[in-house]
Structures are given as C-alpha cells and as structure tokens.
What we know:
This protein is an all-alpha fold. Among the domains are: 8-43; 72-150. Helix content is 70%, strand content 0%. It contains six helices and no strands. The chain has helices at 8-20, 24-30, 35-43, 56-68, 71-106, 118-167. Helix 5 (71-106) runs antiparallel to helix 6. The protein is extended, with a radius of gyration of 31 Å.
Amino acid sequence: MSNVKVSLRQWREIDARIAKGDSVRSVAKDYPITEGAIRCRAKKGSAAPNPKKTTAAEVSAAIVAHVERMPAAQEDMEAIRSSLISAARSSAATAQKLAAIAAKQVELVDKIDPMNTAEVLQGIGALTKLSNDAGAVGMAFLSAERKAAVSEKTGKKEQQDDAAKKAAGGKYGVRQGPRLVASK
C-alpha cells in the first residue's frame, strides 16, 4: 500500500467525499492510501496535492523554443528585438539627460541651509525618479539578454552532459579508466 500512488483525479474524489461529510476511515478503505496520509493532506487545506506550478521562466522558455522552430517567427522575433534595442537606447539617452539636469540642479541647493531650497530638492528628486524610470527599459533589456545568454550556455552544457552519458552507456554505464601502456 505504501508504494501505490494516488492519482490527481482520485485525490479530487477524496476531497469531494470528505467535503460531503464521509469519514476519513471510510474514504481510506476505498483507496490505496492510509488514513494518516489523507489527514495530513487535509491539514494543509486540501487532500489533493497541488499539481506542479509552471513558472513564468518555464513558459517563456517553452515559447521561445517553439518560436525558434518557426522560420517566419524568427524574423518577427529579430524585428521585435531590434525595436527593443532602439527603445532601450532611446530610454538610456533620456535617462542620461535627466540625470545631467538633476546634477545641475544640485548646484542650486543652499549648502548651509538646504531646507531653504526645498522646492529645488523636490525637483531634483522628481528628475532623479524620472531618470531611473527611463533607464528601467534599458536595464530590463540588458537583464533579459544576460539571462538568455546564461540559459543558452546552460542548455548547451546539459546537452553535452547528456551526450556524454549516452556515449558512456548511460548513468550506470561501465566506466573505463585510462589505458596503461607498457614500454619495452
């Protein structure tokens, strides 16, 4: 009984029966599972285990892999990438200009009593925030490019490892050590 697994459909049936008011003991008799396992799941709020949740990164990787197999879509992706690069450059230039304006405004702040120039300080804060917000597009693009490069490198490494395992006879293949050659 301990090695038998209960399917997701069966867990849902168990949930429904417990919610309907059936006893845990009677439910456990009808399925290959112990009362303790049902009670443990019920303590967590549901007898049915949550199916594996797919992360956004996994979905994104699957979409990219699917799109890469389509030649026309590759051209569209390259056009989108080009547009994003242009937008990133533009936002980086805007961020740089706003930061320069904010830096010039700092010179207007009264160094002895900065609170006398509160309006200037508020303006500097607003310019700095605008500069940071404008730079966010470029930073997001750089981050995505970096993650894609790391993902591609990791994927290639995993493929190489899999190929090496296959060539060596799998995970449990016979390992061969170095050959010793006797010289005369």
